[in-house]
Amino acid sequence: MHKKRAYKIIRISLILIVLFVLFEYDLTNVFLDANAAKTGIVNTTGGSLRVRNAPDGEPIGSVAKGQAVNILEEQEEWYKIEYGNSYGYVASAYIEMVEVDDGYKKELLEAGFPESYCTALMKLHADYPNWEFVAWDTGLEWEEAVKAESSVGKNTVAGSSISSYKSISKGAYNLKTNTWVSFDSGGWVSASEEIVAYYMDPRNFLDPYYIFQFMDQTYSAENQTEKGLKTVVQGTFLNTKSYRKMLMNAGEQSGVSPYVLASMIAVEQGSKGTGKSISGTQAGYEGYYNFYNIGAYATKNMTAVQRGLWYAKGGSIGASSYNRPWNSKERAIIGGAVYYGKNYVDKGQTTLYLKKFNVQGKEIYSHQYMTNTQAAAAEAFQVAKAYNKITDGKITFRIPVYRNMPESNTEKPKGDGNPVNYLKNIEIEGYQFAPVFRTYEQKYSLIVEKKVKEINISAEAYNNKAVVNGDVGKFALNKGMNKAEIVVTAENGAKRSYIIYVYRGNSADADFENPEEALCSITPTVTVTEAVEEKPEPTTLPGVTGDVNGDGKVTVMDLLKVRKAILGMTQLTETEQKLADVNCNGKVDVIDLLRIQKNILGIK
Questions:
Q1: Does 2.60.40 match the CATH number of domain 423-521?
Q2: Residue 551, Cβ neighbours under 10 Å: how many?
Q3: In terms of CB atoms within 10 Å, which of 49, 134, 171, 601 comes out highest?
Q4: What is the pLDDT of residue 3?
Q5: What is the pLDDT of residues 150-179, one digit of tens each?
């Protein structure tokens, strides 16, 4: 009887503690919501804005340019903002306040825009009330689209770019020589997945200039005038009466906005017109011009410029389509515009964004006008000059929306230095895993007997400037499926994970086709020691571990540690995060807290 009374007292005490934890958590959230009355947009000159743990404090993360933030408090030159499950501080000089129009926000949400688009669009609506925003559902998964556009050579950046802009995928980078593979004359190299994601994310370009990459490119005699064109070409070699006349004629004949045509030429040939494709003096192709660089790509026998002028001349058969040969500037400007209108705009690539990232139609992820990752944004900036200075008339923007996008804007990568974050080798003492290790292969599997409680993992980085962390050394095994993760961090900060799924038990029960599901469906047995007056008696509880502090027991101390992490009062290490994420959803939240509570109380 004495033992039962003690156990009952402990259970009641634990329930009271848990109720206190949950009550305090709810109060904190109510407090945050009540104070989140102001909204702002990150408006930096660069990519992202640092978030600090205090005014002038240590950086704890960042928020992307164009991202909306909830402002909790003002402290002189700093704003206290909601950040993750907690808060942080940002310099107020880089935050532009936005008045939230709940009625218009509701319209945007009903139109199909995700929440993360709304604040920036509300700001634009307030400044340009005649602009119309259409949510265009691509029907594509975000991660799938980014990976497809990141295939080697499909998108490029200048070779002089910082290393995090450049891909180190197989075929894009030579690991032995530490050099990038050139994909076009002029040193263009394959773009990294991170920079491709940044330029594909429409939320990064919802401002008065870059939004023009979502405007319809078709010709409109009413809305596109020579006066507007003069504004677009201001400061470029195209700002002459003869060039403006050619461009207006080109627009009318091709059905493409002359503003867009002028912007394309300025990006392709440079604002001063120094591109070799329009010099008219290229050896072997004197007197020929290619203003839009159509067909201009390097081959075995020709440079990109030579290939483009070969096309301008009519190719090997003297073709006459699209007003060829382009043996005058006028023929080249008009003929190239007709080519672009027929082969791109008429095929559904009706915006600058779709011209660059073709996420529609039958030729999805292909038939893209240029490889330059930044081209659509650069051309949009040129086009915007006319519209922002001469009219506030009605303009419709067709803005892409993808399925399962990140909750906030994709940040622009900013790391530099050696980019290599590959492993040269992985070894597990006494075991051979599958498949055989290859540098570019990132997932492996291993089966060990039920009696094996740990394995010893070693890993070697390919580059000596990279750092290897994660589950190296002795790795404890639960019964069933286990996941060891080795993280390689390059000098430029880029991370790459290698995963080893280890099954402890009978080989017939190992499910390596769905290892992540197996991780959560097969849970270890946990021993919790009750603190009673008599000799402690182990009680075995089924279900999740939640042993966050790693002392071999699930106790109130683990519960309090998770509660503090949720409230932002402490930060969990990478290992603690994994132990606290008992429902295996990739984050630590109040659901994990409740499950740990049930584990302690013995509730299934």
A1: yes
A2: 10
A3: 49
A4: 53
A5: 999 999 999 999 999 999 999 999 999 999
